[in-house]
Write a structure and sequence with these properties.
seven-stranded antiparallel β-sheet; 3 helices; 7 strands
Length: 154
């Protein structure tokens, strides 16, 4: 189901951004970096951003509310609702404040020891919103992955 309980259209290619990286850490450790709000707050968002979490109710139907603080001093309020959690493989949430999108995060255990394919799949409410945000989200997702790797290396 999608926004407002409506069925998601089958074809989303013009509304989606997919980012992926092989992370040199085990699947469980990568998943824990998202599940644990103290760790997540340290790496979530582009370079230079910090986070203040108000709510992180990590269960289907649970809310995730936080403010991203930009390096330019601008605060960006965020609110999401968790839709699906399958530990240690998958998290789906709906970002319910503009820009509205559904995020699917997957942690795919690779055959090579201690490596995980980490994926973000963002499906936006419209192709127009997706196109507008693509130039921001693609590099921001890469920065997110960089930050995650730095936190995991500690």
């Amino acid at each position: 189901m999608g926004w407002n309980g409506e069925a998601m259209p089958e074809t989303t290619a013009d509304r989606e951004i997919v980012s992926s990286r092989i992370i040199h850490f085990p699947q469980e450790k990568v998943f824990e970096a998202f599940r644990n709000p103290e760790i997540l707050a340290r790496w979530w968002g582009p370079t230079g951003f910090t986070n203040t979490f108000q709510t992180f109710d990590f269960r289907p139907g649970g809310n995730w509310e936080f403010v991203m603080h930009g390096p330019d001093g601008i605060d960006y309020p965020n609110k999401s609702v968790f839709v699906e959690i399958i530990a240690p493989e998958r998290v789906v949430f709906e970002h319910i404040v503009p820009p509205v999108f559904q995020m699917t995060i997957t942690c795919e255990k690779l055959e090579e020891a201690n490596k995980t394919r980490f994926n973000f799949r963002m499906v936006f409410e419209s192709a127009e919103v997706c196109q507008t945000l693509r130039k921001i989200c693609v590099p921001a997702n890469e920065q997110n992955f960089d930050r995650l790797e730095s936190v995991l290396a500690i």
